[in-house]
Design goal:
Layout lengths: L16 H9 L3 H9 L10 H13 L7 H10 L10 H10 L5 E4 L5 E6 L1 H13 L8 E8 L2 E2 L6 E2 L5 E3 L2 E5 L2 E8 L9 H14 L3 E7 L6 H10 E7 L4 H9 L4 E5 L2 E10 L13 E9 L13 E8 L6 H9 L1 H14 L10 H25 L12 H9 L3 E6 L2 E6 L11
Parallel strand pairs: 3-9, 9-10
Antiparallel strand pairs: 1-2, 2-8, 3-7, 4-6, 5-6, 7-8, 10-14, 11-12, 12-13, 13-14, 15-16
Length: 431
């Protein structure tokens, strides 16, 4: 039998979190949070930045909900002389205080829906991206927008089109980094109020001197009002177009197709001048370029509308310079942006929302969106110093390779020193 001895637990198994906190402390993020959200009452023990860092530390140490702070992590996090760690109840209570009232919007069919937006937190998120130099003034970026069902059963959630309860928020990203978020009722139609969401998002970016080169969206954004907003705020746009009978008949008569291989599949592609939404009674619709691709289906079953066995797809754009292949390949890259929701769900706590009401959960989701952006910055820095880290790593691999290292704070010569039990080059980070 092996003899086992116990000792006082002064060694922190999550030693890498000290370097994460140190980078945040020296980045200007703390000052930014406290200046934009304001000072808390004089009797408050923790600032907003202290509370945000307490929550973020849970996920940087492998937790998946705020309660892990009390249950597992606070004794280790409190060992650091450079961080003030609050308990989970305090963190959540203060997050609740940052909520804004929900708003009611009316759809084209007269149905009321509730939305939750938080301008102060959205602006803070953009400010953090700028202070970290992930976004820069006077520059143009590529922009993606999508709506995605967040499955959850809360007091005010509704049944979604995916046959589950949840919310149906809209989120904009630049280079995979969330830049704007609004929460919405789960049963709300994707096109309802979307042009106003995008208008608010574009205006906020432009107010920070951030401009959009190309906007890319799926068929959920294919309507005249939405296209008009996107075209006004972007140099170029690419939106998946819905098929209609008139367009189908036109494509069946079209003869000028050429073959292109895209992602190892042979397509027939073409471009036509197209005036979408021309049947609507509003002002005359603009003319755009419609890039169309088609390929044979895997079976011989004929399409009811086209009367052939071809599968069609089309992209509405104002890009007249790029080839059909270049436009299709660029649009297909938006799949990498859609993975951002998966990362937020599984790495940054979006699937474990702590509150019962939409406006409160909007605060949590936006704060964790900031955490995801900070992680993008951190992994970029640390991957330059550590050979076993890459910028593309998900959070779990970062935790295993960087955070989970035994470390101990010791006092020597009146100075606090972090002793790290590892052969990896943590010393180059210099806390």
């Amino acid at each position: 039998m092996v003899k086992i001895e116990k000792s006082i637990p002064t060694i922190n198994p999550f030693g890498g979190i000290n370097f994460v906190i140190d980078r945040i402390n020296h980045s200007g993020i703390n000052e930014l949070i406290d200046s934009q959200l304001g000072k808390r009452p004089a009797q408050a023990e923790y600032s907003y930045s202290d509370l945000f860092k307490s929550l973020w530390s849970v996920f940087f140490c492998g937790g998946d909900c705020s309660e892990d702070l009390n249950e597992h992590l606070k004794p280790f996090l409190c060992q650091s002389p450079h961080v003030k760690v609050a308990d989970a109840d305090t963190v959540l209570r203060v997050l609740k205080s940052l909520k804004t009232e929900k708003e009611t919007v009316i759809s084209a069919t007269g149905n009321p829906y509730e939305i939750s937006k938080n301008d102060k937190l959205n602006q803070l998120n953009i400010s953090i991206l700028m202070v970290l130099k992930l976004l820069n003034e006077h520059q143009y970026y590529d922009f993606d927008y999508d709506n995605e069902v967040l499955k959850t059963e809360k007091f005010d959630t509704q049944n979604t089109y995916k046959h589950c309860k949840g919310y149906f928020p809209g989120m904009a990203t630049i280079d995979g980094m969330p830049v704007y978020f609004e929460n919405r009722d789960g049963n709300m139609h994707v096109k309802t109020n979307q042009e106003e969401v995008l208008e608010r998002c574009y205006n906020m970016l432009e107010a920070n001197d951030i401009h959009i080169n190309r906007s890319r969206m799926d068929a959920g954004s294919y309507s005249k009002k939405i296209v008009d907003v996107v075209a006004r705020h972007s140099r170029l746009f690419y939106i998946r177009a819905n098929r209609c009978e008139a367009l189908t008949n036109r494509l069946l008569k079209h003869k000028d197709w050429k073959k292109e291989e895209i992602n190892h599949i042979e397509y027939e592609v073409t471009s036509i001048n197209y005036q979408p939404f021309s049947g609507e009674k509003e002002q005359e619709a603009a003319n755009y370029r419609l890039v169309v691709m088609r390929c044979k289906k895997g079976n011989e079953q004929l399409d009811l509308f086209t009367r052939d066995n071809m599968q069609y797809g089309s992209i509405l754009t104002n890009d007249y310079e790029s080839s059909e292949k270049e436009i299709i390949e660029y649009y297909n890259q938006r799949g990498t942006e859609e993975r951002t929701i998966d990362v937020l769900n599984n790495d940054f706590g979006w699937k474990n929302m702590p509150f019962s009401f939409m406006e409160e959960n909007t605060v949590f989701l936006t704060v964790m969106m900031m955490c995801k952006n900070i992680y993008t910055w951190l992994i970029s820095i640390f991957s330059e110093k550590f050979n076993d880290l890459k910028k593309t790593f998900r959070l779990k691999k970062f935790i295993f390779r960087f955070i989970t290292v035994p470390a101990k704070w010791i006092k020597r010569g009146g100075q606090m020193i972090l002793k790290v039990f590892s052969h990896k080059p943590y010393e180059v980070l210099q806390i």
